[in-house]
Amino acid sequence: MALPPPEDLPEEILRTQIIIEARSPIDGKPLTAAQYAQLQEQLQVSPPRKLDPKIREQIFLLRIRKALLQIFPFLGI
């Protein structure tokens, strides 16, 4: 009863195994190693999307507000 089941692999063996399958960081679908490498390359090549300047300003103001509320909690009234 104290021993783990025989189908349970020890952690030492699991650490030495090479991972040949992966999941997409975009939608979580299973991928092969080649597909994962190709997807990573495409993500590195494509530039990130630009945010609208108004949205960027709103995020900046919200971060300032959050910081001020941590320093001065009585301002949140």
Overview of this structure, please?
The protein has 77 residues and is mainly alpha-helical. The chain has one domain. It has three helices and two strands, in the order αββαα. It has a two-stranded antiparallel ribbon with strand order 1-2. A hairpin with a 6-residue loop joins strand 1 and strand 2.
Give the key terms:
single chain, 77 residues, two-stranded antiparallel ribbon, 3 helices, 2 strands, 8% strand
- Uncertain runs are none
- What characteristic shape results from the CA principal axes? flat
Structural class: mainly alpha
Query: Which strand-content bin applies to the residues?
Result: 5-15%
Specify the helix fraction band: 40-55%
Major sheet summary line:
2 strands, antiparallel
Question: Cα-atom Rg, whole angstroms?
Answer: 23 Å
With helices defined by DSSP (H or I, 4 residues minimum), what is the helix count? 3
| Helix-strand topology string | HEEHH
For this structure, the quaternary state is single chain
Strand line-up across the major sheet: 1-2
What number of domains?
1
What is the distance, rounded to the nearest whole angstrom, between the alpha carbons of the first and last residues? 58 Å
Calculate the mean pLDDT score and round it. 85
Tally the beta strands: 2
